[in-house]
Amino acid sequence: MADDFRTVLRHWRLLQSKVGRHLDVLIQLRVLDQQDLAVAQSKIATSQQEIAVNEAKTLRFQSRSVFIFTAITIVFLPLSFFTSYFSMDVASTLSSPYESEMFWKICGPISGTIIVGVFAVARYVSRPVKDDPDEEEMVGGDLKIEPRQRGWLGLSSHLKNRLKMKLS
Question: Which parts pass through the membrane (predicted)?
Fold first, then answer.
């Protein structure tokens, strides 16, 4: 009976050592799975960052396109106004109680103020800039800030930065 008990004890210890080794292997597999999960999460985060950068570049291009379109519209709106004015029917204006002088007294100062204002904003915006936070791009893990000349295309980012500075 003692031999049977020793045999059972020996098998029990052998089983215990096998279970311990299998637990070690399972723990190692769990660690490997966690590492694989961490790698997959970092790849997902990297791809999300790339998507965000691409969307930002696309948005920047679109906003510049809209700004250029707006600038062109600002140029051609007064042009269409003057062509409309100069293509008016002269016969109907001769029978009008108001003269052309009245029109120019009202519209001349308004047009002049708008034109001077646009040129003043253009001159203010075209000043050189050292650092523009909107121009930051990720290059090899480092932020690269390049100085550039601010022109018409930099107006929106300049106004946005001024607003941020006033709010903070």
Answer: 66-87, 102-122
